[in-house]
Design goal:
alpha+beta; 12 strands; 6-stranded mixed β-sheet; globular
């Protein structure tokens, strides 16, 4: 039995709560997580060609991780719809990523990272609950087809309730390890990890540190997934 640490972190474009743009803080938080796979949201700036807010040239140097290859929004972007996934270099040879367009009022999409023994779906759901419900329904169906009984859905769910909006995840174990937003005084559990029935969660938590509370408006979350 081995464990794979999967994490999720909304970078808020590396501006902290009010700025300035300081990606080195976020990269240190990523390094501190010591994860094998990290789902990242808001890695690009919002307008125009959506250039990267998290400099790809610094990722390997400061974290030891690398972006899993996928088609980005533009040549200047790191992510697709503001999302990317970082992996440890030893996982790169077995990794493949596909884009999953999503329904909803605003443009949204997800990324599906396929490893040899696990599929990780990376998401940043919409602001309207009706959109989130439709997006989760599509992702849950896609995940089951792509990943069989060994998949994880993780990211910023934009949902603070535990008893509504998550109906499509009824067959999964949903882990919301603690309040992750707003980072300086966490109150709401926006960030979650949903795990299929074929997997076990050995441990989970919110990464809370003085630096993490300054680096973004979200605290990162993590889960150790037991793999046989």
């Amino acid at each position: 039995m081995r464990t794979l640490r999967v994490a999720s972190y909304n970078l808020h474009k590396c501006r902290g709560m009010v700025g300035p743009h300081a990606p080195e803080r976020n990269l240190q938080v990523i390094a501190d997580l010591d994860a094998h796979v990290i789902a990242l949201q808001e890695v690009d700036f919002r307008f125009g060609a959506r250039p990267e807010a998290l400099p790809r040239a610094l990722i390997r140097e400061l974290t030891g991780m690398e972006p899993a290859p996928h088609l980005t929004t533009s040549e200047q972007s790191l992510g697709w719809h503001g999302q990317t996934v970082l992996i440890r270099p030893e996982l790169a040879a077995q990794a493949s990523v596909r884009r999953l367009p999503l329904p909803g009022i605003e443009p949204r999409g997800a990324l599906a990272l396929r490893l040899a023994d696990l599929t990780v779906i990376v998401m940043h759901l919409g602001l309207a609950r009706s959109s989130r419900r439709a997006q989760l329904a599509r992702l849950a169906a896609k995940a089951a087809r792509i990943g069989g009984e060994r998949f994880v859905l993780t990211g910023d769910f934009n949902e603070w309730h535990d008893d509504r909006g998550l109906e499509s995840l009824a067959g999964l174990r949903v882990v919301a390890p603690g309040a992750s937003w707003p980072a300086p005084f966490p109150q709401l559990r926006y960030d979650r990890i949903a795990v299929s029935a074929g997997l076990q969660v050995a441990d989970s938590g919110v990464h809370d540190s003085p630096l993490a509370r300054r680096a973004s408006d979200h605290l990162p979350i993590w889960a150790d997934i037991a793999l046989s």
